[in-house]
Amino acid sequence: MAFGFFGRRTGILVGIAAVLASLPFGIGFLSQYPVLTASLLAYAVSTILCVALSWNSDEDFDFSTIAEKTRHFDDVDPMPVTKEAIA
Fold first, then answer.
1. Measured distance CA(61)–CA(7) in Å, rounded
2. Per its UniProt entry, which superkingdom is the organism in (predicted)?
3. What is the pLDDT of residue 45?
């Protein structure tokens, strides 16, 4: 998310910081939790595949539009609750 909101350099820095912060927990500790290890491995493989496919794509994406598309999901007031809706 840091990549989408703040750009490439920030995204890479946050990714490196996350790896370094989680490295002490990942060495030896996670082997005691096979389900958690498998889930994290699935996320890692998914991330690698998505990045590899994105880098090989010829389509150019305008990253400046991410902030516009991901903000203000709740701009519209929700429908007021009426007695008919409850019944």
1. 13
2. Bacteria
3. 94
Contact (Cβ atoms closer than 8 angstroms) between residue 2 and residue 14: yes
CA distances from 41 to 8, 13, 48 (A): 24, 21, 11
Q: At 74, phi and psi to the nearest 5?
A: -110, 40
Local structure of 27: helix, strand or coil: coil
What's the pLDDT score for residue 11? 85
CA contacts within 13 A on the Cβ side of 60: 2
Name residues whose C-beta falls within 8 Å of residue 28's C-beta, 6 or more positions apart in sequence.
none
> What is the distance between the alpha carbons of residues 44 and 53, in angstroms, rounded to a whole number?
14
* Whole-prediction pTM: 0.45
Arithmetic mean of pLDDT over the chain: 79
Using an 8 Å Cβ cutoff, are 57 and 50 in contact? no
Tell me how far apart the alpha carbons of residues 43 and 14 are, in angstroms, rounded to a whole number.
Answer: 17
The answer to whether the beta carbons of residues 37 and 31 sit under 8 Å apart is yes
